[in-house]
């Protein structure tokens, strides 16, 4: 990280970051109305979607989890609303150990690392992750997933289709959500001729 990014983290983390305590559930800001819908975005990249939605949906609460410090510094620098908080933590550790049960109205996973065929087991979206998500979401909660890897989209669709707890109004691919900001990664992929595959399932 650059000196500027480290300074941003020092200055703005106390206001916009949530520090994970060992073996404890996260503590939400006292300023938050806990009756408001809570959205979790796993691996937010440069944070375009989180920032845009937080400004457009002031009555919704947003959590973003990421391990990459420069990305965290980038988004924290740009936050201008109180309804967004950032967590630096492994996403699976957050799901298994730190998120309160029955708390989420929406989970978003956009363009996660697809890994090679040899390392597919490292993908964030698999049956184990889905099992970790299920106790944390409310009945009727939404799961949004997007990738530019056709085979990854097919695998995630199969996982969800085989689960008795999830349903979708779409046979396979869903329309691109009109609220999802186009990230630099997505734009680059489209410019290079890659297709985007969106999935939308309900718990």
Overall description:
With 203 residues, the protein is α/β, with parallel strands linked by helices. Helices cover 34% and strands 21% of the residues. It is built from 7 helices and 7 strands; from the N terminus they run H-E-E-H-E-H-E-H-E-H-E-H-H-E. The chain has a 7-stranded mixed beta sheet with strand order 1-4-3-2-5-6-7, with helices on both faces. Helix 1 packs across helix 3. The longest helix is centred in the N-terminal third of the chain and has 14 residues, at 3-16. It is globular, with a radius of gyration of 17 Å. The model has no long low-confidence stretch (mean pLDDT 94).
What share of residues are in beta strands? 15-25%
Biggest beta sheet summary: 7 strands, mixed
Distance between the termini: 39 Å
Q: What number is the mean pLDDT?
A: 94
Rg, alpha carbons: 17 Å
H-E string: HEEHEHEHEHEHHE
The side-by-side strand order for the widest beta sheet comes to: 1-4-3-2-5-6-7
Key words describing this protein structure:
seven-stranded mixed sheet; 21% strand; 7 helices
Q: How would you briefly describe this protein structure?
A:
This protein is an alpha/beta fold and 203 residues long. It has helices at residues 3-16, 48-56, 69-78, 91-98, 127-133, 150-162, 184-191, and strands at residues 17-18, 38-42, 61-66, 84-88, 104-110, 137-147, 197-202.
Question: Secondary-structure map with pairings?
Answer:
Layout: H1 3-16, E1 17-18, E2 38-42, H2 48-56, E3 61-66, H3 69-78, E4 84-88, H4 91-98, E5 104-110, H5 127-133, E6 137-147, H6 150-162, H7 184-191, E7 197-202
Parallel strand pairs: 1-4, 2-3, 2-5, 3-4, 5-6
Antiparallel strand pairs: 6-7
């Amino acid at each position: 990280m650059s000196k500027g990014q480290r300074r941003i983290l020092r200055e703005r983390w106390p206001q916009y970051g949530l520090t994970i305590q060992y073996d404890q559930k996260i503590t939400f800001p006292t300023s938050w109305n806990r009756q408001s819908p809570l959205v979790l975005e796993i691996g937010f990249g440069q944070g375009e979607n989180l920032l845009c939605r937080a400004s457009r949906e002031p009555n919704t609460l947003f959590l973003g989890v990421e391990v990459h410090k420069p990305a965290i510094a980038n988004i924290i620098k740009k936050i201008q609303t109180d309804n967004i908080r950032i967590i630096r933590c492994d996403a699976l550790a957050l799901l298994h150990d730190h998120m309160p049960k029955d708390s989420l109205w929406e989970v978003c996973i956009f363009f996660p690392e697809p890994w090679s065929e040899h390392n597919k087991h490292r993908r964030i979206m698999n049956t184990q992750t889905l099992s970790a998500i299920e106790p944390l979401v409310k009945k009727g909660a939404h799961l949004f997933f997007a990738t530019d890897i056709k085979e990854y989209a097919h695998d995630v669709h199969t996982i969800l289709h085989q689960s008795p707890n999830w349903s979708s109004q779409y046979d396979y691919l869903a329309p691109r959500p009109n609220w999802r900001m186009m990230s630099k990664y997505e734009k680059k992929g489209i410019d290079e001729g890659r297709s985007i595959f969106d999935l939308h399932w309900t718990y």
